[in-house]
Every structure is written in structure tokens, then in C-alpha cells.
Amino acid sequence: MTQTDPVPKIVTSRVGLEESWGIKTYLATGGYTALRKALTSMTPEQVADEVSKSNLLGRGGAGFEVGRKWSMLKPAPVRYLVINGDESEPATFKDHMLIENDPHQIVEGTLISAYAVGAARAFIFVRGEFALGLERLQAAVNEAYAHGAIGRNIFGSGFSVDLVVHPGAGAYICGEETALLESLEGKRGFPRIKPPYFPAVMGLYGEPTIVNNVESMSNIPWIVNNGGASFAALGVGRSTGTRIFALAGHVNRPGNYEVEMAKLSFRELVERPEYGGGMRLGRQVKAFIPGGVSAPWFGPDQLDMALSQDDVAKAGSMLGSGSIVMMDDHTCMVRAAWRITKFFWRESCGQCTPCREGSGWIEKMMQRIELGSGREADLDLLLDACDNIAPGLTWPPQQTTICVLGPSIPSSVASAIRMFRDEFLVHIKEGGCPYE
Amino acid sequence: MGAFSPDMRVRAEGLIALYPERRSALIPLCHLAQQEAGYLTRPFMEEIAELTGTTPAEVYGTASFYDMLHTEPVGKYLVGVCTNIACLLQGGGDLLEHAERALGVPAGGTTEDDMFTLEEVECVAHCDKAPAVQVNYRFFGPLTGESFDDLTAKLRAGEYDGVVPPHGTLIRVQRENGIEVPLDEVLAERREMDKAKAARKAAADAAKAKEGN
Fold this sequence. Notes:
The structure holds 2 protein chains of 2 kinds.
Chain A: H1 23-28, H2 33-41, H3 44-54, H4 66-71, E1 80-85, H5 94-101, H6 103-117, E2 121-126, H7 131-146, E3 162-167, H8 177-184, E4 209-213, H9 214-226, H10 228-232, E5 235-236, E6 239-240, E7 242-249, E8 255-260, H11 266-271, E9 285-289, H12 309-314, E10 323-328, H13 333-347, H14 353-370, H15 377-389, H16 405-430
Parallel strand pairs in A: 1-2, 1-4, 2-3, 7-10
Antiparallel strand pairs in A: 5-6, 7-8, 9-10
Chain B: H1 6-16, H2 26-37, H3 42-52, H4 56-63, E1 77-82, H5 85-88, H6 92-103, E2 116-121, E3 133-135, E4 138-140, H7 145-156, H8 183-212
């Protein structure tokens, strides 16, 4: 399938422009026209209708329809809107780029959404490490206040809302929406016990809350200006619009690429000169991670699969956070899976035993295999530990923990053993890493 | 006499006023404290507790959960080398080993002159510039051993003073506005909006019913 020609740049149109983060550039390129249109000529339900029609799938990782999420908001006097800019899924760097390069677009999308859901106040939670992003987003909010786009009686519409930029402090788990809300309340980032399953029922300070991702918000101004149907006309089936894929690892041109959903294959994204430009040094693909390190791995025979949420899900993995990590044939798969496990071990919040202890056990076993003290029985032991965290090692995984961090731990290790068992055995037999 | 300087105390109170509940400002205030002291000292934790209506133990308990909040002294520059998957594939592990040798401290350690605290960090979302390094949360990359040494030499010489600020992720983040519309006022506005919405729905339903007849 080929992409619509030209592919509209819905969320990255300003990236690369001079001072793309300032209001001058933003206003000169159509900024805040969608907010004005929504507030002065549309009802909140009309805005929500357009977003539902667009079938915008949440861009944070779970891929839940934004319109449907909004419709689940429990009617209550106090409702909040919280934007998740805590991007921490390893090898995902798209929100980081959007926050630094087009903060006004996020602000505008947030304000429109606040109108649609009737939020009493909106918060944008930004990963604490994004110091420059925080600076630029706060500066954008200051400019937007001065422009009359935030605060009392916005653009004379009678709609008022305040927007607060909130800094995180370094914890992967805060990307999980209930942990993010705990953190925003000034607590440890402990995911909340479900049910209630959705913050739309009980969220910030116990009030109904919508939590949406930064890239999701960046799409909203375009959808309001062009209509949900125009957005839905792009892509295939349920995978509508465009999406940023963060391409990393052994490619010639790692970077963020906004492409039409489901029209390109992984291979095209990796090989086309305007995207990845092929594998570095002309090497072969050994394996790749299609959607963040929580996702099970794919092999070279899956490169021709479309970048479609449903196709990837059917094949037993996920597009997740939109991060694609390419690994060439010189990569040690034991080391790669070990490092990913170490990440989960460090970032486990510690509430649930399978995740807290399981990640540590798996990490230690992976370490000893990589460093040459592994035993053949370790492979079954590893899979058994994985099975105790996510019984059956199915996809989507079974859950033994409060949140999905736990069941994400086995993805890389189980994939590596399934696809590269021989490589584990070489490590064990030779007493060390053959790639060292 | 509190731990916060008078100016920073005003700033802290401004931050608290942004939230419906004071405790929400706890983490931002920890960032402010680190801006002043480099790390979270006990007097700061006590004052943050007083300001947010919590106890010093709750402030410590919360702060100790987060990678960016330090309850022990750190060097002038926090140097974080990323070794997560995207950086690992581009030599992040070797770069960390180089950094440990070059600075003479293992990851987690602080140099004797208190200039650098070296950390092995998780993905900093700078993967197109792997292997990446953050210095007080400013990003550099891709780095080699050589360019890492060049970076630390320049930091020592003060050549990056304008680029890499001292501690505190909010040091250059300044909100110019307070909350313009008090929550009560917003809620009154929302009640009217909800009423209007219900009226529109009733009218639409009535029109539909009429069409049906």
C-alpha cells in the first residue's frame, strides 16, 4: 500500500522551523485557529463528536480511542484533564521532540480537549528530565495566557480554564496513568489498584479525570480544523491518521518520522532513504522491537508487516509507544534482553511481588548467562519465572500485578529465548559472550 | 528562619497556589530545594512538609522514590550516561566504562573535587543521538570517549556555564501567571455549560421523537 500523496504533516509540521516553539511562529502557521473555532462556533459535544469520528487512537502506548475515553467520563461537578508527557518507554523519543519543538500545539490541543470534556483545570505532566521541554512548554503557557488563549473567558467565548505545567521527578512508572495521578498528588508513583479501571471514573483527587498523551493532544487542533472525517480518511481501518514512529538502533538515520498509519511496512520505514535509510554498514536485521521494550520482539520475516495497530497485535506484539528498535546481526541478544530486564527491575515500583522479585531474579540469571556462569537449566528457569509474572506468556499477557509493568518484563527475555535459544546455549557452553 | 530564601519561599507559595490541593506541589518544591542546596537537606524537607501539609517523613518517603530527587549530596554536575537499549546498541555500555575510568569513580560515585556525580541512567529519550549523556538534564550526543572527555573538560573550565545550568530542573522555568479563575468560579461556569448541554440534548431528542411520529 502506498501513502496518501503528500502525507499531511499533522503533528510535526513545525519541527525544524525557526523558533518553532514560540508563539510568533505558531500564530504565523495557523496556531490557535482551532481553539477559536471550537470555543466560538462549536459545542463541547460537537468537538467530542469530531474526535470520535477521527477514531484517533491514544498515542501513549495502549492505543485506546480518545473519543471513547472521553465518553466514559463520569458526569460529576468536578472533572480534570491531565496530559501525560512522562515519556519514558526506552527508545521512545517522540513526545520529547513535540514538547521541545511545538509546545503550543500541545497547549492548544489540551485547551480544546478541556472544553470538550468540561475540565475544571488542566495539567500537563512533563517528565522531569525534560528540562528544556519544561522551559519551552512553560514559556508557551505564559505566552498563551498573554494571548488570551488560557484563563478567564478565552477569546470572549465565556469558557474559562487554567492550565498548569507539572514537572515529574524521574520514574518510568509514572507513565502509567494512575501512578501519574498519584505523583501529581505529591506521592510516590504507585499505580492504583483496579477497579475502578479508568481514571474517567475516579482520578485526580478522587474526581473523574481524563488522561491523554502529548502526541494525542497534538493531533486535536488539526482534527478540529479539518474535521474528524479527514483524519479518518488517512490510514487503514481502525489505524487512522498519521503517527510518529521513533526509529532507533542500528539504522543509518535514527529519528522521528511522521507517516500515514498502516500504509507503510516496517521494512519501508527502515529502508527508505527519507526514513531510516537502511541498516548501518549494510548489515542484516537480526531482530526488532516493534513498539517499545514492553513489546515482544519480531524477526526479519516480519519486516513486511504494515505499521498497523491491529496487524501487529494479531501477530502477538504491539505498536505500543511507537518506538521501533532495529538490531543487526552483530548484536548479542542475551545482552540486549538483559539490559531491558535490568531496566524493569530498576523501575518496578515494588508494590507487587511477581514484578519486584521476578524482575530481580530474571535480571540476575540473565547477567550470569551473559557473563559466563550460566547453566543450561537456566533457560527453563527463566521461562518459569516469566510464566509466574505473566501466566502462559500469551499476548496480551495475563496479569498478576496491579499494573502492566510486571507483565511487560517477560516480553524481551521470552522473545530472546524463543528466537535465539542457540545463542543462549553458546553463552552457557563457552562460558561467556561470543560477541565480546 | 526557613531553609528557603525569602524569594524562593514566595516562589514556593506561588507553586502551591496552582493546585487544588497543597500536597500536589511537593515534588515541584523538592526541585526548588535542589536548586538552592543541590540536594534535599533535612531542613528543606521539614519546610516542604510544613508548606504542603505533610510530615518530613512523607516528604522523604516520596522523594526517595524518584531518581531525580537526591537525599545525599551530589557533585556540581550530575552526569548521566544512558545504557538502555538504543544507547547500548550504539556503545552506551562502553561509554559508561570509559566515563568511570576517566572520572575515576564508579557509577553512583562523586569525584573528589565534588565536580561530578556519575550515574548510569535509563533511557533519556534522546535515542536518535545515541549514545547519549545528560548533564544536569541537558542532553549531549552522540558521544565517543574522546568527546566525553572534551565535554567534562569544558564543564570543569566553565565553558558550558550558559548551556548547563546548576541544579534544579525548574531553574529556568518561570510561570508568569497565577490561577486566573478560582475553582469555585470555574465550577459555576461548568454547571451552566452542563445545563446548556442537557437542554441541547433534550431538544435534539424531542426533534427526533417528532420525526419518528
